[in-house]
Amino acid sequence: MKLFRFFPIMILLVCWTCQSKNESKNEETPLTSLEGTTWKLTGIVNVNTGTLKALEPKDCKECYTLSFDTDSTFTTNSASNGLGGNYKVDFHTCTIHIDSFGGTMRGEIGDGHQWWVIFPILRSFSLKKNELVLYYNDEKDYLLFKPLNP
């Protein structure tokens, strides 16, 4: 008689376990390294309003790209210039710190100057296979990237 009382509970437990396994297969697996990845900026998102602002010039293929060459170095292109630097990333705390950042701002067009201002103040990130988010301004704004070569 006691067996019949526990039978419905066991069925529910088995169904829940199977559902959890199926759901985890459908979830996107987060990456654990930035090395060798290249990203193209979709735009800047304001967290409070959810609005996305694409940086000018919008039709520039090389502008606002970001490549992580190693686990500590990166290169990027503003609207007019190439630049690069060193970074540290912690995947457990989802923090990023730009150690050094340099290049020239000479002849910058469009929103290129804004690109220069944002990079040194990046603080945290979110990373998935098809999306990189770099937060700044006390996480009130973020840079939204898509992989350049998925």
Name the CATH architecture: Beta Barrel
Proportion of β residues? 35-45%
> H/E series, N to C?
HEEEEEEHEEE
Q: How many domains would you count in the coordinates?
A: 1
> How many helical stretches?
2
What is Rg? 21 Å
Oligomer category: single chain
Helix content: 10-25%
Structural class: alpha+beta
**First-last Cα distance:** 58 Å
What fold name goes in the CATH topology slot?
A: Lipocalin
Output the CATH class name.
Answer: Mainly Beta
Largest sheet report: 9 strands, antiparallel
Give the overall silhouette: globular
Which stretches of 5+ consecutive residues score pLDDT under 50?
A: 6-26
Description:
The protein is of the alpha+beta class and 150 residues long. It contains two helices and nine strands. It has one domain: Lipocalin (Beta Barrel), CATH 2.40.128.270. Strands 1, 2, 3, 4, 5, 6, 7, 8 and 9 form a nine-stranded antiparallel sheet that branches. The radius of gyration is 21 Å and the shape is globular. About 14% of the residues have low confidence.
Structure, briefly:
With about 150 residues, the protein is an alpha+beta fold. It has two helices and nine strands. The protein has one domain: Lipocalin (Beta Barrel).
Features:
Lipocalin; alpha+beta; globular; 2 helices; 150 residues
Ordered list of secondary-structure elements with their pairings:
Elements: H1 2-26, E1 37-46, E2 52-53, E3 65-68, E4 73-77, E5 82-90, E6 95-103, H2 112-118, E7 124-128, E8 131-136, E9 141-147
Antiparallel strand pairs: 1-2, 1-3, 1-9, 3-4, 4-5, 5-6, 7-8, 8-9
